[in-house]
Every structure is written in C-alpha cells, then in structure tokens.
C-alpha cells in the first residue's frame, strides 16, 4: 500500500517518541501559537478525491531544528457522513499519522505538536504530500463510509491565521452543543481507546458532562462514532448501576475499565481527583493538581510555559500524571470538563480551585461561580505557596474554611508550621524499605546538611 513512502508505516511506530535532539523539524507545539487540525464534511462536488495540497513551504524548504506553524484540513464527503462525525474522524489524524516511522503526532485540535525525525528526513520524508498519502489511504481503508477525501497542509502563516480562527469557532460550536445534557439524562456513556498506544491502561470515559481528556470528543461524537463503527476504538459503555452519584461511580464504567485496561483499573470515579480518579493519558489539555499546603487545587493548561505556584511546570507534572495511571491529586482534564457542573464535584468544585493562569481564568470565566472568581489566584497574584496562602486568606476564599487552626497564617501572612506532603515517601531503615502512602509530615524545624565523604553510601565520594 505504501511502496512509494521511503519509511515504514505500521502500528509498531504508533507510540514512538522523538526527542528534541533527534528531530529535524517541529510543527506546532508549545512555542507556536497558531496550529490546528480540522475535519470538515462537505458536499461531494466541493472535493477533488485524492488531492493533497501544500500551501506554503514544504518540509524540504523548512530549516532544520526550528518550529513552524501548521494547519491540517481534511475535507470529506459520503452519504453516511454527518457533522457529528467530524470531531471523531479528526481524532484519527493523531492515530494514522503516528503510524509513520519517525513522525510523532501529539494532542489535537488547536494544540497539535508534531516532530519529524532526522533519520526519517534523511531516508526521504521531505514532503507533506508523503504524509498526506499515508493519511488518505488509511482514512479510506479504515473508514469506508468516506467516499471522497482531500487533504491540505498549510505552513504559510498568513494563510493559517484566518483558518485557525475558523477552526476555533467550529470547535466551540461542537462543544456548546453538549453543555445542556446531563449524565443522568442518558443510559449510555462512551469509551475511547485511541490513546492506548501511548498509555496502554488508559480508559477514557466520555459522558455528557465529562469530555474526553483530549478535549476533542464529546458524548455526541462518541454516539455517532460507535453507531457507525461499533467495533472501532470508540465504543458504547452501559452505565449500569450508579454506586455513588457524588463521585460519579457506575458499575458499567468499572466493568468496562477493568476489561479495557487488562485488569489494571477496576474502579473509576468520574468527578473526583481522589480515590479512584479517571485515568490520564498524555493528550490531556490540562492538569488539576492538588496543593496540600492550602487544601485546594491548581489548574494548568498545556500552553502555560512558566512554573506553576507549586514550583513545577506543566511538562514535569504531565510526566507524573500520564501513562494511563490513576494518580490521586494529579488529574488530566479537558477544558470542556472545566465548563461542566460536574467538574471536581466530589472535591468541592470551584470552591476548591485556588490557582490558575490568568489566560485560563479569563477563558472559562462564564463557567466559574461569580462569588469565587475573584478569589482564585493567578500567576499575577501568587508565584509561591506562601504568597498563595496569604492571597487566599486575605480574600476569604472558601477553601480557608478547610484549614486547621495551626495552618492559618499569622498577621504577616506566613505560616509558622511548615507541612511537607507527597504521594509516596520512601526511606530505608535497618535494611527495611518503608514507603509512606499519601503522607503529610508536620515539623517545627527541618535541617538539611551535606553528608561527609565517609558518611556517604558505600563511602564513595563521587556517589
């Protein structure tokens, strides 16, 4: 099928990672503001079947080691196609392009991040037309209800700008449609396995009020996809019995999770970051992270480049969150889930959110309760935990009612008792390794001093 493609194409490359030192070029990613991928259902007469167009400089003309804007338009037609399928088919761009050796595709929609390896470029991958041929063939073979397809790659910044704005409007219209429907109004949820190549135990559960972590697939998208391709990567999940309406735990979801994760995940609570939180893949749009010092949550989206209030950046926390794991206190989320009335409902919702970047706060302002909006700190208000504590106390954030008396700051706004907390805290004593789970340690004073050479493990001064 791909005799004219100079590299191999297959499932074996789907989870391939390309590090910065190994990349020839980068397309999209954190340093590029305008990037997108968009699938549009069109009339048959508007499409030239099999046409692949490159608008702007092709791969061979792009300078090695640099990052560039990129837009991908996939126009399709077919008698069985409907608008509800656009978002689902769009997500297949991620899957199919990752089959190409040395071509890494991450994320979705307005947040795509693509790298081409030096090795594959040297082998002859020098044009987007080659990438388009692979995608075109896979779309036609895997989704036979697509009768006509044409693909356009845009690298010209002037041409990308208006199309980027158009894409944002399309995404918003899709998302808005699902907001009026409640999880209690339906008998069926949907699951998505598209990210399991990167996160084998990830079980994405899509409900009316909990979008896919990637932010690309709504409940309506899931229903359309499962209806037209019941054996595909997006599948129906019978809700079953509701075990806990507050945390969002259902017997049907648990059974599906256990089966799809090969037994690694047996319980899922959809509306909480504690207990048995929804698994996190790697394509999530943001992270809700617990800040134990203030008993609240911070929010950070993928595009935020600075350190968050806990001193960690998005990428650092993402490494600890992703992979299909259930990590209490680190919760991969979509932006649309932040607009849901079920957002962290079991944990206090927005009454528990204490920090997020200003851009994020303004972006979702209509969905944050008015009484708490001004009390959520941003990077302009607090860059450290002590600054955050002082801010929350001064504005009377609801989370302060959770603080124990000894945790409240004095008149200076500085806590007199420091608390260290974490997930797993290991130490070794008497030849026995002890791990404290979800430990919180209170101390009046902590002394840190370097070991002398003869005190070091094994006595090796270089260890």
How is this structure best summarized?
The protein is an alpha+beta fold.
Structure write-up:
This protein is an alpha+beta fold. Among the domains are: 11-178, 2-Layer Sandwich (Bifunctional carbon monoxide dehydrogenase/acetyl-coa synthase(codh/acs), Chain M, domain 3), CATH 3.30.1650.10; 181-284 and 322-347, Carbon monoxide dehydrogenase alpha subunit. Chain D, domain 4 (Ribonuclease HI, Chain A, 3-Layer(aba) Sandwich). 23% of the residues lie in helices and 22% in strands. It has a four-stranded mixed sheet. Strands 2-5-8-3 form a four-stranded mixed sheet, with helices on both faces. The chain has a four-stranded mixed sheet with strand order 16-14-15-17. A hairpin with a 4-residue loop joins strand 14 (286-291) and strand 15 (296-301). Helix 1 crosses helix 3 and helix 1 packs across helix 5 (219-228). The longest helix is centred in the middle third of the chain and has 21 residues, at 157-177. The N and C termini lie far apart (54 Å). Residues 413-433 and 450-463 have low confidence and may be disordered.
Oligomeric description of these chains: single chain
Rg (C-alpha, Å): 24 Å
CATH architecture type of the domain at 11-178: 2-Layer Sandwich
Order of the strands making up the biggest sheet:
4-1-7-6
Q: For the report, how would you describe the main beta sheet?
A: 4 strands, mixed
Provide the CATH topology of the domain at 11-178.
Bifunctional carbon monoxide dehydrogenase/acetyl-coa synthase(codh/acs), Chain M, domain 3
Give the CATH class of the domain at 11-178.
Answer: Alpha Beta
CATH superfamily of the domain at 11-178: Bifunctional carbon monoxide dehydrogenase/acetyl-coa synthase(codh/acs), Chain M, domain 3
Shape: globular
């Amino acid at each position: 099928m791909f005799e004219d493609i100079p590299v191999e194409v297959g499932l074996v490359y789907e989870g391939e990672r390309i590090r910065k030192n190994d990349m020839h070029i980068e397309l999209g990613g954190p340093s590029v503001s305008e990037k997108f991928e968009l699938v549009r259902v069109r009339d048959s007469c508007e499409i030239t079947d099999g046409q692949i167009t490159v608008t702007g400089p092709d791969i061979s003309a792009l300078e090695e080691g640099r990052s560039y804007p990129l837009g991908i338009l996939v126009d399709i037609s077919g008698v069985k196609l409907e608008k509800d399928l656009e978002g689902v088919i769009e997500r297949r761009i991620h899957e199919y392009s990752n089959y190409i050796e040395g071509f890494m595709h991450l994320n979705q929609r307005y947040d795509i991040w693509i790298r081409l390896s030096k090795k594959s470029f040297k082998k002859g991958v020098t044009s987007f037309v080659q990438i388009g041929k692979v995608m075109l063939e896979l779309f036609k073979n895997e989704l036979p209800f697509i009768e006509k397809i044409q693909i356009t790659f845009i690298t010209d910044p002037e041409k990308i700008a208006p199309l980027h704005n158009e894409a944002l409007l399309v995404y918003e219209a899709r998302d808005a449609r699902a907001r009026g429907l409640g999880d209690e109004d339906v008998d069926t949820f949907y699951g998505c396995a598209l990210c399991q190549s990167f996160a084998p135990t990830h079980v994405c559960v899509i409900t009316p009020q909990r979008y896919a972590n990637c932010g690309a697939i709504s409940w309506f998208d899931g229903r359309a996809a499962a209806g037209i391709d019941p054996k595909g990567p997006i599948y129906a999940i019978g809700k079953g019995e509701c075990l806990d309406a507050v945390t969002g735990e259902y017997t049907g979801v648990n059974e599906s999770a256990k089966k799809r994760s090969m037994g690694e995940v047996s319980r899922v609570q959809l509306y909480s970051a504690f207990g048995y939180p929804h698994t996190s893949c790697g394509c999530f749009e943001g992270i809700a992270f617990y800040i134990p010092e203030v008993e609240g949550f911070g929010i950070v989206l993928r595009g935020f480049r600075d350190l968050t209030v806990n001193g960690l950046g998005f990428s650092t926390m993402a490494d600890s969150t992703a992979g299909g794991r259930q990590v209490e206190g680190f919760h991969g989320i979509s932006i649309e889930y932040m607009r849901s009335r079920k957002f962290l409902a079991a944990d206090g919702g927005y009454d528990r959110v204490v920090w997020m970047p200003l851009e994020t706060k303004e972006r979702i302002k209509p969905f944050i309760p008015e009484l708490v909006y001004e009390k959520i700190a941003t990077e302009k208000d607090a860059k450290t935990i002590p600054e955050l504590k002082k801010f929350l106390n001064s504005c009377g954030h609801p989370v302060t009612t959770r603080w124990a008396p000894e945790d409240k700051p004095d008149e200076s706004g500085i806590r007199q008792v420091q608390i260290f907390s974490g997930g797993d805290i290991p130490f070794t004593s008497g030849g026995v390794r002890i791990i404290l789970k979800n430990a919180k340690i209170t101390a009046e004073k902590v002394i840190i001093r370097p070991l002398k050479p003869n005190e070091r493990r094994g006595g090796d001064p270089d260890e």
